[in-house]
Design brief:
777 residues, alpha+beta, Beta-galactosidase, Chain A, domain 5, 6-stranded mixed sheet, 20 helices, 39 strands, 25% helix, signal, carbohydrate binding, Glyco_hydro_92, PNGase, peptide-N4-(N-acetyl-beta-glucosaminyl)asparagine amidase activity
C-alpha cells in the first residue's frame, strides 16, 4: 500500500547459496534495519512483540505532503536524528504517530529542531551508522554533535532511555510535544505538560491527522533528581507560524497547556548515565503513572533489555530455519516484522479508549481480553493474520477478534474496523476485511469469543448501505462507478468478504445467512468483462465505463492502488471460476504470462506512490498481486507458479536497508515471504487450504501453539534446481497442489524433492487443484 515505482535487482544469493552452518541464534539473525531504506517504511527501534510502545529514532519531520518516505519516522539515508519518540508504524503506507519525542542535549538547550544541513541550528544531531546498534528490543546510537550515547529498550507499555552524557557537561532532556510524523500546522489540538512534587512528569496531547481527535497520555520518571525545568509554549514565547508575541520568557511553573509545548529538564553535571522511563496510556495520566510499574518496576535498564530479548527469543522460536545466511537473516527479520502488530492498546488494568472516544473495561460479553489496535486490514487479512494463527498462541488471535467485535459495538457506525489505529478509524482503503480475519480464526477452531456476536458484527458491516457503495452493491450486484470511486475493486473485494461470512454462517448452522452471502460471493462475475478478459467498472445502467486502459492507475479511478491487470485475478474464493471465464487452462496461463512479461517501457507510474516492485504488470510491492503467482496452480500449471516465485523472491527481497520492494504494511510483505519460503501460501483465508509453491529454505519447522511440530525439507534445492519434482507428506506421495490446515496443525513432515527441470504432470488434474466455488470442469 502507498508505494513508489521501484524494481530491485535479482539477488539469487537469497535462494541459492550453499547452506552455511547456522552459527547465530534466531534472535541474532534479525536485522531491524531491513526495510528502513527505500520504500519499506520499517523502523529500527526498541519494541517487544505487539508492544504498545515502539521507541525509535526519528530522523526528520517534514510537512505532511513530503512525509511519505519517513512514514516510520526513521529513514536510513537521513544524516540527523531529531530524538526518540514512542509510537511508530512498521511499514505503513501512510504516516502518523511519532508521539512524545525526547532527546538528550548538553549545555544550553535549543528549542527548535533546526535544519539538517546546518549543524548546531537546533536540537537535532548528526550521527553515524557505525555507532548504531539495532536488535529486537534494543537500539543504541551516539549523537555526534553532543557525544551522548543513547540506548533504548522497551516493555509492553513502557520505554526506557539510557543517556551517557560527556563528563563535565550540563545534562538536559528536551521533550517536544509538537513533533509528529505526518506533520502540518494545527495538528496538535491541545496538549499539557506538568511536573509533580516527586519529579514525575505527566501530560497528554490530542492530535488530528490520519486519525481524528486521537488522545494519548504519558508519564515520565528519571533515576536522577531534577535540578530545574523550563516549560515553553512556542506559540507565544517566540514567533511561531504567524502567532508572534516576542518577549515572553520560559514558563517555570509546574504546569503548562497549549498547542506548541516544549519542556527542558535539567540534571546538572552527572557522574553516570541518566535513565528515563516513559509509560503511555490511552485512558488518562493516572493510567500512564500506573503503567510505569507494569514492566520494569524500577530503572534497571539492563534487566528490561534482558526481558525484551527473552520475549523475542520465545516469539522467534515459533519457526526454526535452516537456510543460507542471507536468506536466514531475511526470513527471521520478516518473522520479527510480522510480530509487531496488531499491537496492545490497553492499560495494565485492561481499560482502553475505544472508537467512540470513551474509556472501556477490557471485557466483552463477560470475557476478559486485551484490546489491540493498528489494523491494516486491507493488507493483513491476506497472509499476516493467517500466519499469526500458526506462530502465536490462540489467545492472541482471540484478543484480536474480541478487539474487532468490541470496536464494532463502540463504533458510531456499528461496523467493524477498516483501518484503525489507537482505537480510531481512518477510513483508509476499501472492503470490510475484518470479516475474513474473524472467519479464518473461526474455521481454524480458534473460538475464544462469542461466535454469534462475531457473525452479527460481520453481517452488520456487510449490510451498512452508506459505506462504500454497499447499498448499490446489494441492489445491483456490483458497485457502480458513476456513484462510487474504485468501484471495480470494491465489487470483488466485497464478494470475497461475503464468501467468508457464508463459510462461517454455514459452519454455525445459519443456513439463511449462508445462502444470502453465498449468492453475493458470486457478484465478482458482474464486473468481469468476458470480451476483454478484464475486471472493469460498470455504471448504474449496466454499461462498462469507457475509455478502458488496463494499465491505467489513478487514485479515485476504477481500481484501488492497482489496475485491471492486478484486479482481474481477485476472486480468491472462485479462482476456478476465473479460469473458466478466461477460457480454460491454456488461456489462463497465457494471460498470466502476459502479465508477468508485460513491457512497461511505455508506462509511467511516477504519479503513484504505491506502485513498486514491478515484474511486468505484476506489482509485488502492493497487495492485490500477492496471490497471483499461485494462480497457475488453479490452471493446472504448478511448475509455472514455482518459476514465478523464484523470480519474485530473488528480485523483491534482500538483507539490506533497501531490502523490501514496497511498504511492509504492518507485516504483510514479510508474511508473504514467510509462507512462500515454507512452500505454501493462504491464497484464500477461511478456506483452511494453502496453495503449494516451492520452498526457499533447506529445512524449517513450525513449532505450533498446540505443541506439535510441522517440518518442511527441501532435498537437492539450488540455483540450478528451482523446480519441484515431487512432494511427500508424512512419507506419502502428495499429488495435489494444496495443503489442508488440519494437516499442518497435526504436525508432520512435508518434503520437496527439487529438480533442474519442471515436472509438468504433478498436480495438474482438476481434482488436485485448490478448492473453488466453481468446479474446474
Amino acid at each position: 500500500m502507498r508505494l513508489r515505482l521501484a524494481l530491485l535487482a535479482s539477488l539469487s544469493i537469497l535462494a541459492a547459496t550453499p547452506t552455511l552452518a547456522q552459527t547465530s541464534s534466531a534472535y541474532e539473525a534479525v536485522d531491524p534495519f531491513i526495510g528502513t531504506g527505500g520504500d519499506g517504511h520499517t523502523f529500527p527501534g526498541a519494541v517487544v512483540p505487539f508492544g504498545m510502545v515502539q521507541l525509535s529514532p526519528d530522523t526528520d519531520i517534514l510537512p505532511f505532503r513530503q512525509s511519505y518516505a519517513r512514514a516510520a519516522g526513521y529513514r536510513f539515508g537521513d544524516p540527523t536524528i531529531l530524538g526518540f519518540s514512542h509510537t511508530h508504524f512498521s511499514g505503513a503506507g501512510h504516516s502518523d504517530l511519532g508521539d512524545i519525542l525526547l532527546t538528550p542535549v548538553v549545555g544550553e538547550a535549543k528549542l527548535e529542531p533546526g535544519e539538517a544541513d546546518k549543524p548546531g541550528s537546533g536540537y537535532r544531531s548528526r550521527y553515524s551508522h557505525d555507532s548504531e546498534v539495532a536488535q529486537p528490543g534494543y537500539y543504541a546510537v551516539t549523537l555526534s554533535d553532543s557525544q551522548v550515547r543513547a540506548e533504548l529498550t522497551a516493555g509492553l507499555r513502557t520505554g526506557l532511555h539510557r543517556y551517557a552524557f560527556p563528563k563535565g557537561q550540563r545534562a538536559q532532556v528536551l521533550i517536544d510535544l509538537r513533533s509528529s510524523i505526518y506533520n502540518y500546522p494545527g495538528k496538535v489540538l491541545w496538549s499539557r505538560l506538568r511536573v509533580a512534587p516527586d519529579g514525575t512528569i505527566t501530560g497528554y496531547r490530542e492530535t488530528r491527522g490520519w486519525a481524528p481527535g486521537r488522545k494519548l497520555f504519558f508519564a515520565i520518571r528519571f533515576d536522577k533528581p531534577l535540578v530545574g525545568q523550563a516549560f515553553h509554549n512556542r506559540e507565544t514565547d517566540v514567533p511561531y507560524k504567524g502567532f508572534a508575541q516576542p518577549g515572553r520568557t520560559p514558563n517555570d511553573r509546574a504546569q503548562i497547556q497549549g498547542r506548541a509545548l516544549v519542556g527542558v529538564f535539567d540534571f546538572g553535571q552527572l557522574d553516570g548515565p541518566l535513565t528515563v522511563k516513559v509509560a503511555l496510556s490511552s485512558v488518562s495520566e493516572d493510567g500512564a503513572i500506573a503503567n510505569l510499574a507494569s514492566d520494569e518496576p524500577g530503572f534497571d535498564f539492563d534487566a528490561q533489555r534482558a526481558r525484551a530479548k527473552a520475549a523475542w527469543e520465545k516469539a522467534l522460536a515459533a519457526v526454526d530455519i535452516e537456510a543460507p545466511a542471507p536468506m536466514r537473516k531475511t526470513l527471521y527479520t520478516a518473522l520479527y516484522h510480522t510480530l509487531l502488530a496488531p499491537s496492545v492498546f490497553a492499560d495494565a488494568d485492561g481499560r482502553y479508549r475505544g472508537p467512540d472516544d470513551q474509556v472501556h473495561e477490557g471485557k466483552l460479553d463477560g470475557r476478559p481480553f486485551t484490546f489491540h489496535s493498528t489494523f491494516s486490514l486491507w493488507d493483513t487479512f491476506r497472509a499476516e493474520h493467517p500466519l499469526l494463527t500458526l506462530v502465536q498462541p490462540a489467545d492472541y488471535t482471540n484478543d484480536v477478534v474480541n478487539s474487532l467485535i468490541a470496536s464494532q459495538r463502540q463504533s458510531p457506525y456499528q461496523i467493524l474496523p477498516v483501518w484503525q489505529f489507537h482505537g480510531q478509524e481512518t477510513w483508509t482503503m476499501i472492503g470490510y476485511h475484518a470479516v475474513p480475519v474473524i472467519a479464518d480464526a473461526w474455521m481454524k477452531g480458534i473460538r475464544g469469543y462469542d461466535g454469534k456476536a462475531a457473525l452479527d458484527a460481520m453481517v452488520k458491516s456487510a449490510t451498512y448501505a452508506p459505506y462504500g457503495g454497499l447499498g448499490d452493491y446489494m441492489k445491483l450486484g456490483y458497485v457502480p462507478i458513476d456513484k462510487e470511486p474504485e468501484a471495480a475493486s470494491k465489487t470483488v473485494e466485497y464478494a470475497y468478504d461475503d464468501w467468508t461470512i457464508a463459510r462461517m454462517a454455514r459452519d454455525m448452522g445459519q443456513a439463511d445467512t449462508a445462502a444470502t452471502f453465498e449468492k453475493r460471493a458470486a457478484y465478482w462475475r458482474n464486473s468481469f468483462d468476458t470480451k476483454t478478459g478484464f475486471l472493469r467498472a460498470r455504471k448504474s445502467d449496466g454499461t462498462y465505463r469507457e475509455p478502458f486502459n488496463p494499465t491505467a492507475i489513478n487514485y479515485g479511478s476504477d481500481y484501488t492502488e492497482g489496475n485491471a491487470w492486478q484486479y482481474s485475478w481477485f476472486a480468491p474464493q472462485d479462482l476456478g471460476g476465473v479460469v473458466k471465464t478466461l477460457g480454460g487452462d491454456a488461456a489462463t496461463v497465457k494471460k498470466l504470462d502476459a502479465m508477468f512479461d508485460f513491457d512497461n517501457s511505455k508506462v509511467d507510474y511516477s504519479h503513484a506512490e504505491d506502485i513498486a516492485g514491478l515484474i511486468g504488470q505484476y506489482i509485488h510491492g502492493n497487495e492485490p498481486s500477492h496471490h497471483v503467482a499461485y494462480m497457475y496452480n488453479y490452471a493446472g500449471a504448478p511448475w509455472r507458479t514455482q518459476a514465478r516465485l523464484t523470480q519474485i523472491v530473488n528480485s523483491q527481497y534482500k538483507p539490506t536497508p533497501e531490502g523490501l520492494s514496497g511498504n511492509d504494511d504492518l507485516g504483510q510483505m514479510s508474511a508473504w515471504l514467510m509462507f512462500t519460503s515454507l512452500g505454501f501460501y493462504p491464497v484464500t483465508p477461511a478456506s483452511n487450504e494453502y496453495a503449494i509453491g516451492r520452498p526457499f529454505v533447506d529445512k524449517a519447522a513450525l513449532n505450533l501453539p498446540n505443541g506439535k511440530r510441522f517440518t518442511v525439507r527441501a532435498v537437492g534445492m539450488s540455483d540450478a534446481a528451482p523446480y519441484v519434482a515431487k512432494v511427500t507428506l508424512n512419507g506419502q506421495t502428495l499429488t495435489r497442489a494444496f495443503l489442508k490446515h488440519e494437516e499442518i496443525v497435526a504436525g508432520g513432515e512435508l518434503v520437496f524433492t527439487m529438480s533442474a527441470t519442471p515436472n509438468k504432470t504433478w498436480a495438474t488434474r482438476a481434482a488436485d487443484r485448490p478448492t473453488s466455488m466453481t468446479a474446474y470442469r
